Amino acid sequence: MTHVSIRELTKVYPGSADPALDGLSLEIPTGELTALLGPSGCGKTTTMKMIAGLLAPTSGDIHFDGRSVLSEKPEHRGVVMVFQNYLLFPHMNVADNVGFGLKMRKVPKQEIDHRVKEMLELVKLPDLGDRQPSALSGGQQQRVALARALIVQPNVLLLDEPLSNLDAHLRFEMRDLIRGLQQEMGITTIFVTHDQEEAVVLADKVALILDGRLKQYGPADVFYKRPVDEATARFFGGQNFASGTSDGSVFKSGLGQLKLPDGVNPGPGKLTVRPENIRINAGENMQNSLQAVVTERVFLGTQTLVKLQVGNEKLDAIANPNEVENISVGDSVTISLPPSSLWVLST
Ligand code: ATP
After folding, report:
1. Position in ligand 1 atom list of the atom nearest CA 49
2. ∠ CA(261), CA(303), CA(338), 5° rounding?
3. d(CA 100, CA 308)
4. Atom 29 (ligand 1) nearest CA
5. How far is the C-alpha of 337 from the C-alpha of 230, rounded, in Å?
6. So what's the architecture of 4-225 in CATH?
7. What is the DSSP string of 129-166?
8. Cβ(309)–Cβ(288) under 8 Å?
């Protein structure tokens, strides 16, 4: 049970001009699951290694429950890190792998056996204690790695892309398992991923890192409704941006004059609306209704992407396939951009 406070954490690798991580500050409350989200090379693993004590920061600090841990050795921090390639000991069977941390702590054998059995049940591998890691599937190895991490009841659990080597079906199962165990045990957990969907599904809060800098930190829905800038909106699937000016209640752009929700500041900016919030074939008297021409439609399986032209502006809309089955390329349609779905990014 540990509150993790990351303060202005910076890492410049020797010989490198740019920081791999630049002034990251995050407060991670006890028992929460936070996702560090970002594209490859943005500094996620560097952050995890500094929290684990495997890498020294260039500047900044890390506090656990109010005390700096920078001078503490990795083994004294109570942090366990699970890597994406599992790293099980190949010469030990599953039970010995899971019990390893307890053996190192000189826990009596009888208690180790009991806790290993309990842990294997929790990760749903009750009968595999005698197997060698080489005789396990990737998903099973990942569960053993998780069991081995959790059995020592760490203060902080770090998961570095733990699902990236698993196929889609196993990924769903592991997500549920990780979320369930994390909530049951209440362990403060930091989870690295480049997959925004995974971050959204698993995390209490998401920290989006781009080019070594924190862009935004908060509950997942805020990234969809109130992204801080265009790069953040794009990372979460935002595709529609129109430059213009707000007078505080109306936004003027190539899309015409659109009524804004309350709370938008006056001034120049970029209007954004998520593809799934554009209503197609909305009634003429809906708020913010516009005439658009359909330029393309792409069937995505459970949804249809409809590309639209409004004057000189382009918009992408995502709709339920049933709702747009009678719409063809070249059709003129009435669309509506409900004021509550609009958001203006400052430029
Ligand atoms: P990925 O998702 O691909 O694992 P990441 O977000 O975890 O990426 P990091 O591994 O933290 O990114 O790397 C951040 C930056 O630091 C990258 O530009 C990387 O090339 C650089 N870097 C990482 N490790 C070292 C190192 N030991 N020496 C020099 N540069 C490094």
Report:
1. 11
2. 15
3. 59
4. 13
5. 19
6. 3-Layer(aba) Sandwich (3.40)
7. TTS-GGGS-HHHHHHHHHHHHHTT--SEEEEESTTTTS
8. no
Answer whether residue 285 shows pLDDT above 80: no
44 lines ligand 1 (CB under 6 A): yes
Which pLDDT value is given to residue 346?
Answer: 85
CB proximity list for 130: less than 8 A, separation 6 or greater: 93, 94, 95
Q: Residue 95: which residues within 8 A CB-CB, separation 6 or more? A: 113, 116, 120, 129, 130
Cβ–ligand 1 contact at 16 (below 6 Å)? yes
Q: What is the pTM of this model?
A: 0.88
Do the beta carbons of residue 286 and residue 336 sit within 8 Å? Answer: yes
Is the Cβ–Cβ distance between 130 and 95 less than 8 Å?
yes
Q: Which residues pair with 157 in a beta bridge?
A: 80, 189
What are the structure tokens assigned to 176, written together? 């549920």
Which CATH number does 238-346 carry?
2.40.50.100
- The whole-number pLDDT of residue 284 equals 67
